[in-house]
Amino acid sequence: MTFELSREHEEFRRSVREFAEAQIAPHAAQWDREHHFPVDVVHQMGKLGLFGLTAPEEYGGAGDDGDFTSLCVAIEELGRVDQSMGITLQAGVGLGINPLLAYGTTEQKERWLPALVAGEALAGFGLTEPGAGSDAGATQTKAELVGDEWVVNGAKQFITNSGSEITSLVTVTARTGSRDDGRPAISAIMVPSGTPGFTAEKAYDKLGWHASDTHPLSFEDVHVPADHLLGDEGRGYAQFLATLDDGRIAISALSVGCIQACLDMAVAYAGERQTFGGPIGRKQGVAFQIADLEVMLQASRLLTYKAAALKDAGAPHQEVKRAASVAKLYSTESAVTATRIATQVFGGYGFMEEYPVARFYRDAKVLEIGEGTSEVQRMLIARSLGLPVE
Fold first, then answer.
1. Which of 77, 327, 328, 381 has the highest CB neighbour count under 10 A?
2. Residue 183: what pLDDT?
3. How far, in Å, are 32, 43, 120, 180 from residue 166 at the CA level?
4. Residue 93 pLDDT more than 90?
5. Sign of CA dihedral 380, 382, 388, 390
6. Where does the Acyl-CoA dehydrogenase/oxidase C-terminal domain lie (predicted)?
7. Would you tell me how many other CB atoms lie within 10 Å of the CB of residue 386?
């Protein structure tokens, strides 16, 4: 049994690759050095339709011509030249647009989606807090309904697309009461940018993803209308967990792009670099490592697109959830290994920032952390097998 993308998906891949190589690749190193978030490129991505791949036509999306697999193809191709732009698309759609599509009211969708789908605006997804990362249920941010407004107080951290000049809103999880069993009732509330008391703090100085927009957020008596509740009150945590399942597949696609870049760079360099009277690629010590990259690439790609195909086919949630965790775990850890191998192939040059392999090396590590750490994925996979893992 084989799994191959459709002809339409491959044609779409070629168009995104052409865009990425022409509009992103020549500038990626400079953006990385300057920690520059290229808003103009985000707008171009919107015009190309990349932010609308999962959205209906009435909001400017691709409708029947798009699907989750197409989104993964786009993220992979962007990530192949620049992981920062890949994560910008991944978060913009998977964490910004898709929760609105899944849980928003018609009024909420009509208000926010057209600009998000067009790439004219971005939305963030505020789940992680200083004391609530993998243990997201320990959320301390609170929202109290006072009259016809929610009053939000708290803090979030590591939030992508949350403080750019085109960020229009951030959806945040907050405690809004208590459940019958005593656990906190957590809801999702949309907070528009510019709301008094809502501050996107100074951008992080990160190890990698320098051209991605990432901020800590603070909320001090932030008043938003009651109709900014996203989905059902008390269901925000469950909604966000479902959102993360899809996001893990998309992060896997970003990892595939990283592995592909490492393979491309290693093959090219091993064919050009001369030592001891010939190219280093003829040495088994180098050639075998590059062969391992090909194995990791094929396995990661198959796992990723199998999970995407299951989602597009409407497979049972638990089946998609397990496939997403398997793909995310394998592909992200493979991406980190791939950057280490590629850097080793380049030798001392791999340690120099003038070579893209150094940027990919820095960018890769967070893939094992974001959208649920490798440890969380192993826990979820074990539970899906019936093991009583705590």
1. 328
2. 87
3. 20, 10, 7, 40
4. yes
5. negative
6. 234-385
7. 7
Q: Point out the residues that are catalytic.
A: 371
Lowest mean pLDDT among 131-145, 202-216, 222-236, 256-270: 131-145
Per-residue pLDDT tens over the stretch 112-124: 999 999 999 999 9
Domains, the chain, with CATH or none? 7-122 (1.10.540.10), 124-234 (2.40.110.10), 237-384 (1.20.140.10)
Type of residue at 228:
H
pLDDT of residue 180: 81
Phi, psi for 62 (deg, rounded to 5): -80, -20
Residue in the block written with tokens 């396995």: 299
Helical ranges in the chain per DSSP H: 7-19, 28-34, 39-47, 68-81, 83-90, 98-103, 106-117, 236-272, 284-312, 317-346, 356-364, 374-384
pLDDT band at 2; cut points 50, 70, 90: low
Sorted by sequence, the CB contacts under 8 Å of residue 244 that are 6+ apart come out as 371, 372
Lookup: tokens for 175? 């405690």
Which amino acid appears at position 173 of this protein? T
CA distance 219 to 290: 48
Distance of alpha carbon 367 from alpha carbon 330, whole angstroms: 11
Residues 6+ apart with CB under 8 A from 301: 256
Q: Is 200 exposed, middle or buried (0-12, 13-18, 19+ CB in 10 A)?
A: buried
Distance of CA 221 to the CA centre of its chain: 30
Alpha carbon separation from 211 to 39, 41, 42, 141, 206 (Å, rounded): 10, 11, 12, 28, 10
